[in-house]
Design goal:
The structure is a homotrimer of 359-residue chains. Chain A is mainly α and 359 residues long. A two-stranded antiparallel sheet of chain A has the order 1-2. The model of chain A has no long low-confidence stretch (mean pLDDT 86). At the A-B interface, helix 13 and helix 14 of A face helix 7 and helix 8 of B.
């Protein structure tokens, strides 16, 4: 018990791990779906944080290439697991909304908050202009690759047709290949879009051994699976009960709980005037969701027999386009200030309001 | 009489003040709505110029912060008054068209003409790259904040529903807060988006005392109110009589008469190779319309019981997006030449033709 | 016979000239439309190359201004001829698809391949940032000028109405004037969007005399006319027979055969690390298609009594917007690498897949 308490003391966020048993208690004692939903959502926060830290630790212990690969694939493991569970349950619209929300949350909420907090403390902050410009290009590309199948599908046939499915699968394949190429590029050149700078290395030294990191990773992953099961089952009754749309849950709420820990790191790093790293955390996470998680989910959905096409809703497409364009323009000059942070947050707030008001 | 004549001599534009009594004469002698419309429109030109000069003079006499605040709120007073009168009459589509047109007119017509004239005289002209880039970001943001409620509304419900109204009011509130933050930012940093550089100070010294400026401001404001009354009442019969659409009047014509004086100053300044100032006049006026005048009108419309939502027509949205994107790309390199001026004017001409041809 | 064989040896592509008689043989011996189509398409490749080389040679023999003018008008002569023949046959949608495809092919396929090949060989390659930025602006402008009539037309009336026709003709006129101004500008300033750098001068010396160049130009032009006749007549039976859409033929296939030679030159030049020239070939060809060929075809279509409006299909507009935006962001920093090449190709492949899957 004592090491656990010490652990909690070092990372107060881990107190939230208690929400996992509470969620199961709520389920078995029939406290109602809202309690199940709330506790399982809370439980995801520390578990996602542990997965993140485990991945970083493993990455820090291996060579940069394997480290980069680990981060590039496991960096959004919690979101991936929640999405897989939701696909199994056939909640495809929720999954696509959470993909959208994850990209928007990283670009607008995390980056906006980082620039706001960092800018208030340090005035004008700068980051690598060339890298920012390359990232902006990849972001624009990522949104275009999601836009094309979404819009073309309507002209090709109904969503179940083999041609629409072929477009989705083909696009997903090309996206994964491009993500692989971007990773390969990052191994060769510093400052490339996905090159790995370990947060662990910079923020603090790795505290865990490889063995410990693997055990924690495995346990936390199992925990996220357990929490996701309850979370996903409770989603529909909660939406019906509270009158909230699938959009709001998917776009605003789920990405939030899957990323809280990462968000805090990005803001903390910005407050320490390491804007380069802060921007990279937000942007590379977005790129990973768009160019890796989304297409991987297309293939995983085939396995579960609930094929998910890359067909996003018009509002999701507009939100993504708006979010990426404003990020591209904000980050292109390699400088940020608190006003730019406030600008990104403004777009996030208006989008959140819009999605909240949809019936 | 003599001082008035001297005044006219110094500023020939003021001869147009005679159009105001002529407009009332046309109204009372029933010369027909076209004459009323024409004279009241002509009368707005010198009155708007006087309001602009009065504001500038007051700003020059006070400290930069209050000066900045005066300009940021009264800079488009003539447009604001016309819009308020039109809202009272329930001409909401006309008001939204004139908001669109005011932004487009400043970005495409004024900036295009300035770059064309300045470029023909001076070859390649340069302006502050960093400030241009920050302004571009705010412009993109402003358009996105208008796009989101316009497009989301269609998915939320019919325009009169409480949810659509909530989205409009919420967005308007966030926009005004952001405008306030941008203003605050401009007080602290040189070269910020809305920082005040007095045209008066640069072009010529303030000719009026504070007292005189306030009197002229009050009289000119009253004059604009009087002219707007006639103008707005004559709009509908004129559209019907000439077969021109509300779009053309709102997007092309009204912004033109409200900004002639400002346009002339911007072009003159560009011809004097002060491109920095010229670009700033056009851009800050656009930002003010989008982030301040538009949301303020949403609240004013509530007072008059004619609630105006931030729901713009698809064509207005496309025109705004096109105008802002081309401006962002043109201004981002901090350089201009006559070809870029011609490019902006090209877009303006094609848009004007398009709006003219709509029935 | 001997000089012809020597000629073939120097330029192996010319062996494809034999496809022209084969196409006529296929037509007269009724081998079926697919053979006619395939042979006439093959024949266009060397003929387009000869027109290109003839134009370059003439340009190299005259002064830079006339050379620039020759390139700016004859640079896409093969595409222009095919389009004119197709307009005469009333295949207006095919013509508009091939305009779209020509722009996309240059920006995404040619530029992507050039950056990929050049980047693999030379790492990061750089080109003139200012010129790239000016070209990006013109590209964005070109797409906007195609977007506005396309979208406004739907609100103005049905495609045959006089108002829609007026918008098309007016827009076409303004585009040609702007193209003329851009050309004029390029005569005065180095590094301007359309300034002429002869590929001939840089890659190798002109091999032909003026007289020989004119004869070859005339013969190759006649050859393209003959090949186009067969090609265009075979298009419809081929589409029906193979179940391919007009989109795929127009957007992917026709621009490919009209540009193979030019494509090879651009890639070769990039492989020689002359990225400036390579980017310019791709971009100036796109600009020429959008701002010169497209509006000229509007006027030519009037002569044939088959008026073609500048109304593009929504998918074409999305493809153009996506292609130009990604190109603008990729080229704006004045640097390229193989990853950026792969990014452009990714968009091209996904678009090609989408157009292929449309029924």
């Amino acid at each position: 018990m004592k090491p656990f308490l010490l652990f909690i003391k070092r990372k107060p966020i881990l107190i939230l791990l208690l929400a996992l048993p509470l969620a199961y208690l709520a389920e078995f004692l029939h406290w109602g779906p809202i309690w199940v939903f709330a506790f399982s959502a809370l439980a995801v926060i520390p578990l996602a944080a542990l997965i993140g830290e485990g991945t970083e630790t493993l990455a820090a212990h291996t060579n940069p290439r394997i480290g980069g690969l680990l981060n590039a694939t496991l960096g959004n493991a919690a979101e991936l697991i929640i999405a897989i569970v939701a696909i199994r349950e056939g909640l495809l619209e929720l999954v696509k909304a959470s993909i959208t929300g994850s990209i928007l949350g990283n670009l607008l909420l995390v980056m906006g908050m980082s620039m706001l907090v960092g800018g208030v403390r340090h005035g004008i902050q700068s980051f690598d202009r060339r890298q920012a410009s390359r990232n902006a290009v990849l972001l624009v590309l990522a949104v275009i690759t999601l836009l094309i199948p979404s819009i073309f599908s309507g002209y090709i046939g109904n969503p179940e047709s083999i041609r629409v499915e072929a477009l989705s699968i083909g696009t997903a394949l090309v996206m994964i290949i491009l993500y692989g190429l971007a990773l390969l590029y990052s191994f060769k050149y510093e400052g490339a879009p996905l090159s790995h700078k370990s947060v662990e290395e910079i923020v603090h030294k790795p505290a865990w051994s490889v063995r410990k990191a693997i055990i924690i990773l495995a346990l936390a992953t199992a925990g996220v699976v357990l929490a996701s099961e309850l979370l996903v089952q409770a989603v529909e009754p909660v939406m019906a009960g509270l009158g909230i749309s699938e959009f709001f849950i998917g776009i605003i709420f789920i990405p939030l709980i899957g990323n809280v820990a990462e968000h805090l790191v990005a803001v903390k790093v910005a407050a320490n005037n390491q804007m380069d790293l802060s921007v990279e955390i937000a942007v590379s996470s977005s790129l990973q969701i768009a160019l890796f998680v989304a297409p991987v989910l297309v293939f995983i959905s085939l396995i579960f027999g609930n094929p998910m096409q890359l067909i996003f809703n018009p509002l999701e497409l507009i939100a993504l386009t708006a979010g990426v364009l404003i990020t591209a323009f904000v980050s292109e000059d390699g400088e940020s200030n608190w006003l730019e942070g406030a600008e990104l947050l403004t777009i996030y707030i208006i989008l959140a309001l819009g999605f909240f008001l949809i019936d």
